[in-house]
Amino acid sequence: MSAGEAPRLLATVFSAASVSRCVPIALLVGTLLSLVNQGAVIASGDATAATWLRVLFNYLVPFCVSSAGFFGCRRAAWRTAQSSGAR
Fold first, then answer.
1. Could you tell me the sign of the dihedral formed by the alpha carbons of 59, 64, 66, 67, in that order?
2. Which of 86, 87, 76 is nearest to 6 (CA)?
3. Confidence class of residue 86 from pLDDT cuts 50, 70 and 90?
4. Whole-angstrom Cα distance, residue 55 to residue 68?
């Protein structure tokens, strides 16, 4: 991204900087959510395809939330740089 170009959503979310920060968050939060919400079902051996789909979403949602925060931060920094350069 050049100095004058606004950050692009997908390019920012899947950049190395974003992934290196957001994946660990998603792994930690997703694991905790899965243990709390689906742990008993999985431990009892009664997990169905629906259970595993819920587990998948337990990882996807924190990834999306942390990625949105990362993108918002990058966008705010870009806007600040734009307003500073325009003066």
1. positive
2. 76
3. low
4. 21
